Amino acid sequence: MFRITASEDWSSIHPDAVIGLLELSGVDNAQSSPALDERKREIEARLRERYRRFTRQDFLALPVMVNYREYYKRFDKTYHLLLQVESIVLKDKNLPDVSPLVGANFAAEVETFVLTAGHDVARLHEPVWIDVSRPGDQITQMNGAVTAMRVGDMIMRDAEGISCSIIYGQDNRSPISALTSHVLFVTYVPAGVTPEIVIAHLMRIEEHVRLFSPKAVLEQRQLLQA
């Protein structure tokens, strides 16, 4: 089991926040998954039926979405999952066709609205801990851009630097690839979202993963609470 801790600053600056951890090993991420693709189409159909008459304000008032809206507002940003759900419901877009592990995560996120990053455990360097961004912090984003960070964002650090941030997303060192067989999903949840919702979300991701890797080993499924 990969060990992740949390700093006192994270707990004090983000009271009642929750971090969810789901770690799975023995995963086959190299092949396409017809079963997962079918599940994704089912989820898209449910979202369109459920929200077909929604406006942006209706989406923003939904449970969980409203909590992320308040978090992102502090940084003058729009919650990117809102945009993804809108594209599925209002523009008839499909979930992106990436690797099965990434697809398993996306499929859960658009139903629960719980923000989750997926990391290749082999690409993380201990120690790993949940923290907040500080003056002078930078992140090398997945597109290679080096970005100066706003202070106070919820982040994950490893020995090499910042691995993920709510506002700026994942780094370019540790994301899931086709070769990933040991994965760590990390949810970043602001105050107001219950631990029960987070656990249910992690279980949904795991259920999706088992559609293509039924023998995956559950290393951990747990919460860190501020």
List the quaternary state of the chains: single chain
CATH structural architecture = 3-Layer(bba) Sandwich
SS strand fraction: 15-25%
Helical stretch count? 7
The general outline is globular
- Please provide the count of β strands: 11
Secondary-structure element sequence? EHEHHHHHEEEEEEEEHE
Highlighted features:
Phenylalanyl-tRNA Synthetase, Chain B, domain 3; globular; five-stranded mixed sheet; 7 helices; alpha+beta; 11 strands; 24% strand; 226 residues; single chain; four-stranded antiparallel sheet
What features would you describe in this structure?
It is a single chain. With about 230 residues, the protein is α+β, with helices and mostly antiparallel strands. It has a single domain (about 5-225), classed as Phenylalanyl-trna Synthetase, Chain B, domain 3 (Phenylalanyl-tRNA Synthetase, Chain B, domain 3, 3-Layer(bba) Sandwich), CATH 3.50.40.10. The chain has helices at about 10-15, 35-50, 55-60, 65-75, 80-90, 100-110, 195-210; strands at about 5, 20-25, 115-120, 130, 140, 145-150, 155-160, 160-165, 170, 185-190, 215-225. The strands form three sheets. A five-stranded mixed beta sheet has the order 1-4-7-8-9. A hairpin with a 2-residue loop joins strand 7 (about 155-160) and strand 8. The longest helix is centred in the first third of the chain and has 18 residues, at about 35-50. The radius of gyration is 17 Å and the shape is globular. The model has no long low-confidence stretch (mean pLDDT about 95).
